[in-house]
Amino acid sequence: MTKQSIFGRISSLLKANINALIDQAEDPELMLDQMVRDYTNNIADAEAAIAETIGNLRLLEEDAAEDRRVAADWGNKALAASRKADEYRAAGDTVNADKFDNLAKVALQRQIQSENEVKAAEPQIASQTQVVDQLKNGLNGMKQKLEQLKSKRSELLARAKTAEAQQKVTDALKSVDIMDPTSEIGRFEDKIRREEAKVRGQQELAASSLDAQFESLDDIGELTEVEARLAALKSGGTPAISQ
Fold first, then answer.
1. Helix (H, G, I), strand (E, B) or coil at 203
2. Domain-wise residue ranges, the chain
3. Which CATH class name applies to 3-175?
4. pLDDT tens column, 12-49
């Protein structure tokens, strides 16, 4: 995997709007499960690529450190050769003096070559360091996003279970709703009310029959009084007046 593809995938995943994706998904739980798998796999790929990039950077740094060490070593050799040449020249031995001066020049050339290699490696090291930092930051962002995804998935699952439990409770309550005429209790109550109404009707009927009987008794009483008064008239007496 190239660094460009790593950057592209990390950037794409970090820009993902989880809430918007959830709103658009037909099955949010399946979508979140897939996203968790995608992030997990991409994180694993990114970690492997970043580890390789870091390894290459460390090699560059080690090579640069070695070049600096070599440059310093050649500098020391040049200094030693120059001092040796000075000693021979002070002693009047120009041949050996020139010989060691030439050796000092060779050492200085090697020093300059090593220093140039260090300078040439510095921009590459700086660039690779920046890339590694960006990759690390992106990787950390992906890991945070993954935790956010897992948290969101747990939240949705908990909400779904709660909603399912609430639905079961609602369905159970509907089955025992005493105000619902279609429920068993509602039908039983309706049957009792009809029986009660029937009893009240019978009572009213019985009461009306009883009243009629008493009314007939009143009529009989009136007829008896009339007969008594008529008999009094016939006997020449005065009929008694009811008090």
1. helix
2. 3-175, 178-243
3. mainly alpha
4. 655 555 566 565 656 667 777 777 888 788 888 888 88
